[in-house]
User: Fold these one by one.
Assistant:
Number 1:
Amino acid sequence: MSWRIEHADTLTVLAELPSRWAHTCIALPPRGTSRERALAVLTQVHRVLREDGTLWLLHTNPELCDELRGAGWVEQPPPGWARPLAGLRSLTRLTKDTPLADPCSLVRRPQCASWRRPSWPTPRAADRAGVLGGLTGQCVLASTTRIACGSCGAPYHQGAAGKPLVSCAHHNPTGRCLVLDPFYHPANGTLDAARGHGRSFLGITDSQAGERE
Ligand SMILES: [Zn+2]
């Protein structure tokens, strides 16, 4: 597992990353980020994300989602555990427009069966950082696996009888899933969530991006 924080212009860093590389992206555009800027960043994320990757967007601007559909993103049903966060920010789950199996289809069923709904504190009872950290942790668990193929990055899902299910033929279980945060801020909880679950992490922080909440 490795992690890195890049302190540089987000679009410049993203442009240098390989295509179809990251497994999941958790994006919290800071308040003050223009729609144009967020769209430009998330269009680059679309390229950097694997075909089976997931974008978790925590945002306060519903119009952004409409524009993302035009940029090749497909909005997926929100997970049930996202609901208590409604008053804070909306969580939208997006995938690429590649036809994807249903999240609970054959390959993913064992993973879905093991999802545990956390005993959520209500936002009123919990501090914002704690709620956000729990949410980003759920995003990481729902869209990545502990082991990935060291050759092609394909995630190893847990199959029946504990046998890994993988979609490639490399037999190289030395890789780790990569979590990308293009609007990195320590309060997002994304780095802690990725490290806590043994995933690799790349955060990009651009101090010009806007004002923090
Ligand atoms: Zn492979």
Number 2:
Amino acid sequence: MRVTVVGCSGSVPGPRSAASCYLVEAEGDGSRTWRVLLDLGSGALGPLQQYLDPREVDAVLLSHLHPDHFLDLCGLYVMIKHAPRAGPANDPPRRIPVWGPAGTGGRLAQAYGLAGGRDMSAELDVREWSDGGPVRVGPLTVTPIRVRHPVPAYGLRVEQTGRVLAYTGDTDSCQALDRLCADASVMLADAAFVDGVDQVRGIHLSPARAAQAALDAGGVRRLVLTHLPPWVDAEEGARQARRVWLGPLDVAEPGAVYQV
Ligand SMILES: [Zn+2]
Ligand SMILES: [Zn+2]
């Protein structure tokens, strides 16, 4: 499989990147390519259209319900509902599976301002994670693992035939990261905080904490720091991580592609 960084800006969209969104593509049986999104945060629906028609994704997998991770599902809902489609006009739109924490359907309706008990169930097939319970999407097995953040949040372990992509979502250091990230070919790690500057705990990893999590998990081959806010210096982030992690390291940028 491969993963493309659609948006990687932390907490808010930045001048050069949308907020969190990663496109995972994997070949299934019969040469069908499966495409899933890890998060669809604020601003990400725009650049996503450089890669595919967003209505064609096989599933959207949400780490948690902060706006920088889910809000552009409102835009996807509008596209499904109103953008012209090929094929007979009377065909009902394809419902896109959306996996997320408990309450995802209600949050989407609230975010869009749907009133009177209306929801997005004609457009989006919303399902809820259960901690540690794997979900199959085509050739991919995705295991949500509860992590440490002020709201219910999951890291996502994406596997295909022994290859592992680990996405921490938003989290501070926690034991769950060992199970999430063990033997990952690529670990996409929240590194929103700056070592020595951001002292509050329980919200985000810093570069050094992300690097330590990669070491602790064991078998991680490439560490990719992501979710750096626009006000954080990426080069300094990389320097902080390199004090702990000596293996391959990148700071995520929009358009970057990693083979997993
Ligand atoms: Zn975030
Ligand atoms: Zn968050």
